[in-house]
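Quarterly update, task 2.4: cytidine-5'-monophosphate-bound model.
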Amino acid sequence: MTTPKLTSNICDPKINDPKIIVALDYADATSALKLVRQLDPTLCRLKVGKELFTAEGPKFVEQLVQANFGVFLDLKFHDIPNTVAKACTAASHLGIWMLNVHASGGLEMMQAANEAVNKTAHKPLLIAVTVLTSMNQAGLNQVGISADLASHVLKLATLTQQAGLDGVVCSALEASMLRAQLGHDFCLVTPGIRPSNASQDDQSRIVTPRDALKNGSNYLVIGRPITQAIDPLKMLAAIHAECIQPI
Ligand code: C5P
């Protein structure tokens, strides 16, 4: 693989803090790099999920990091505490910006993950998935959880905060509630973002980019509305323009 050609390589994600995280849900590096080469790391971060990571592995993640992108490694670890802690250590060594586990793995698992990343030289933000944005109340009931969906999200987010993690993945529909309950320093990362005329796809709990920020989201994860747009850069620019308008 060659290093992506960038429109700018002056990026310290901590200073620029771009709000848009583009989900690189592609089958292989070649397809992902077609888009990545056109992106500016000062304007967006990148998310590598299970499909691309399984196909291309850690070297591809390191390549994005070396190209100055803030990378969210979205592998949603969910296993026994020892296994998750070790996976988090290995992931942190890739130089990524953010990493996640499933909050439903429990307090002990999240504490083990947190301790593990805290010991690494370049600690990534560690967040936990509450209820997937593809789930609705009926889906939650099907897996044996009879609680109201929003209450369940709050319960898992509270547990995440108790474990010492930096924040959660949730729907922007729950962001204002979590912001009010868990304070301003808790990071809220929200997938299920759809510009008003975009397809819902398999997402259930969707919100527009601007409403997500209004509700208190810190970062917006956006995949298909950008990656499957006829002109992905134009779509990203339109979403970016919407995001930087004063709320
Ligand atoms: O294409 P779309 O914008 O729906 O992509 C959303 C991305 O966010 C996907 O990569 C998906 O795996 C991820 N995600 C999600 N819901 C969560 C956590 C992550 O949709 N709760």
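Highlight for this quarter: The chain is about 40% helix and 15% strand.
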